[in-house]
From TrEMBL:
UniProt keywords, alphabetically: Cell membrane, Membrane, Transmembrane, Transmembrane helix, Transport
Membrane topology type: Multi-pass membrane protein
Any matching Pfam family: Multi_Drug_Res
PANTHER family linked to this entry: MULTIDRUG TRANSPORTER EMRE (PTHR30561:SF1), SMR FAMILY PROTON-DEPENDENT DRUG EFFLUX TRANSPORTER SUGE (PTHR30561)
GO (cellular component) term, any one: plasma membrane
InterPro entries for this protein: EmrE-like, Small_drug/metabolite_transptr, Small_multidrug_res
Name the record gives this protein: QacE family quaternary ammonium compound efflux SMR transporter
Amino acid sequence: MPTGVLLLLAVVAEVTGTAGLSASEGLTRPGPLLVALLAYAATTALIGRVFARGARVGAAYGLLTGCGLLAATLLSVVVDGDVLTTAQLAGVLALGVGVLMVQVGRR
């Protein structure tokens, strides 16, 4: 499996874990908590495989956390109906640009 696909799967697993953690309502609902724990374990295993293939920590982890934050923010807007302020939108835009710059800087 290509390294980029492993990284994408790690992002999906991380966002799934975060959603499960939120849905666990303070760790009181066992089903969503189990989803969160399994998803975070999958994230760790996947990013470990990415590192094992020689990916630089700064680039790979930066992408994981940056893309995870972007995806989680989008999920909160779509699922929870959160409304972002102008400052938050600017932050999301800056983060997106930062994630791209990390990748462009690799070449």
